[in-house]
Amino acid sequence: MRVKRDITRFAVLLAGLALFVAGLTPILRAALAAESGPSVTLKTEGAQPREVEDATEKAIVRDYSASWKAIANGLGNNDLNALDAGLVGFARDRFADAIADQKKTGVKIRYTDKGHQVEAVFYSPDGSSMQLRDTAKLTREVLDGEKVVSRDEITAHYIAIMAVTEDRWKLRSIQEVPNF
Amino acid sequence: MRRLFWVISALAACFFAADVARAAELQAPQSAVAGNAASIATSGSGDATMYLIGPGGAAKRTVKLGQALELKAEELRAAGRYTVLLSTGEKADFFVAPAKPKQIAFLARPSRVPVAKPGVITGVAFVFDDFKNLVLEAVPVKFDLSVQGTNASETVGSKLGIAWTKMNSASKEGAAQFVASAGDVKVNRVVQQTAGEPCNLHMKIVPANAGEKDTHGIVVETDPIRDCSGNAVPDGTIVTFSLVDAKGRTTVDSRIKKGVARANLPASPGGMVSVAAGVVSGNELHVGGGQ
User: Which of B187, B220, B252, B278 has its CA 20 to 30 A from that of A162?
Assistant: First the structure.
């Protein structure tokens, strides 16, 4: 009788533990993703005219992810300085304008990033710039104040240009297109 | 009578449903271009709040349903996806295309290059419109490289907003003008073309100058040093003179000054003097025995 009760107690404990782990995993994953930036997979076989070096490939994956994190942080928090972590030139200007508009209108865009399938199509002969085609899966929310007025799951196609800056690659231009 | 009532009710319901369906329609523009105004037809009546969400920002204003939504040119400066949302729940997406080329970001590399080298100069042109949008449509981009009357030119079609070229350096030294142009937009960069390696390096023994009278050695001097295209090798370039005799080797590094290099070496009958600049060797002289 006692053994049966112990087994039941153990089973309940195990089930509770499983539920706890199951509940915690997505939270942990989301927290880690938010910390490290969205997932990026990069194909470089089609890059022209220069072959992409292994070290550059890794740097682009890391820094393109950092650029999107900077965009999400900048737009999500109306934080102009957050853009500097991953954007430069025209791209920075564009999102700085967007943040200025958000502050003016009170309408805010919030991206939840679900990953990027990226392909390098151009790598400049001097190795200072790279053009990417990105198919991104995003959740885009439009907020008026704190009220969510729209929420969309979108698959977006971007043409992006990354440029070497003083210590890393940064997003120099990004443009969404209907398709590739 | 009851049947008639039901028929009329059903018809009224159909008309109401059709009207609601019509109100849900937003006719987004099919071919919007950056920096140009556009309008979106609406149906229905009354006021609504419109949100315009684009890559360059968000706008919000009250609009009258049943009238066209006028989107201002300055609201559509950024190319990409726009979403129009109405507080009544209607939504429409449309894309704005880049306008005509108005700016070129031109990267020319390197800034300094030796003359007469094949494929050493690269130019990459990023074609943008007036609103910082990359012009994705193919446009011809012309690259011109000219220096001292020599000119090389190439026209390349841009692909996804980028055109690039690889060119030879000219045989003349000087500040080469490297120009990228698309339509009426031109951007100029300067590539300094410098003389290449010395060619036909030749030295001779010369009498010592007034300041050199006290030396007990010999004075050697090169002819004016030029590269294989006839360009003067820049002053400051190191030329190495070496004397090998019974005592061993004596080396003097001398900089080119006014086109020639000159050095004092110990007098050593039977010794051999040689001259070199970089990887290029010149003639040899036997001291005391003629050339």
Answer: B187
Q: What is the pTM of this model?
A: 0.77
Can you spell out the DSSP letters for A127-147? Answer: SSEEEEEEEEEEEEEEEETTE
DSSP state of A45: T
Give CATH for domain B101-194: 2.60.40.1930
Q: Chain B closest CA to A6's CA: distance in Å?
A: 56
Predicted pLDDT of residue B291: 43
Query: What is the token pair recorded at B53?
Result: 């969400």
Contact between residue B145 and residue B91 where contact means Cβ atoms under 8 Å apart: no
Identify the domain containing residue A83 by its residue range: 38-177
CA dist., res. A143 & res. A106, Å (int): 8
- Please name which of A40, A108, A97 lies closest in space to residue A69, comparing C-alpha atoms: A40
What gap in Å lies between CA A129 and CA B158, rounded to an integer? 16
Q: Does A105 touch chain B (CB under 8 A)?
A: yes
Q: For the segment B151-201, what is each residue's pLDDT rounded down to a tens digit?
A: 999 999 999 999 999 999 988 889 999 999 999 999 999 999 988 888 889
ipTM: 0.79
Q: Are both A103 and A54 inside the same structural domain?
A: yes
Based on the fold, state whether residues A69 and A46 are members of the same structural domain. yes
Residues A53 and A102 placed together within one structural domain of the fold? yes
Structurally, chain A folds into a number of domains equal to 2
pLDDT digits (tens, 9 = 90+) for B210-243: 666 555 788 999 999 998 888 889 899 999 999 9
